[in-house]
Amino acid sequence: MDAGRLPVFVYGTLRPGEANHGLLLGRTAAETPAVLPGALLYEGPGYPYAVDDPGGGEIRGELIDPLPEVYEAVLADLDRLEEYVPGAPGNLYDRLAREVRVAAGHVRPAWVYLAGTATARALRADGVPVRGGDWRRRRLPGAPG
């Protein structure tokens, strides 16, 4: 998978209508519903964490295509928000290339912020999964689970 100028899969507070989406306003070329297969979503302190799940879980979110002229700035802003420093041990999140599914089952490579190693280990042991893998629907009465 080419890890160049990839779109970004967002699943929590960066989704349209959520608290941190304003960081992206006016700087996206497209926002497309998408699913990240092979991952589980966990509750966090006001924001979620995604963790790899070889057992077949999936997370619902959006694929964000930043405008080409501000791509580096958008990615830098997201890295700061997610407390990600390339190559640093102990990152809160790690930005990794993964494949996501969009409409009609098409697959696209994307950057995804997954919980850092220590956080992922703790979540697997004691974390609270977001039922249905959809951060937005966790607050709705009758949300699937």
From TrEMBL:
Annotated ranges, domain Gamma-glutamylcyclotransferase AIG2-like: 8-137
InterPro entries reported for this sequence: AIG2-like_dom (IPR009288), GGCT-like (IPR013024), GGCT-like_sf (IPR036568)
Pfam family, one: GGACT
Name of this chain's protein: Gamma-glutamylcyclotransferase
Source organism of this protein record: Streptomyces silvisoli
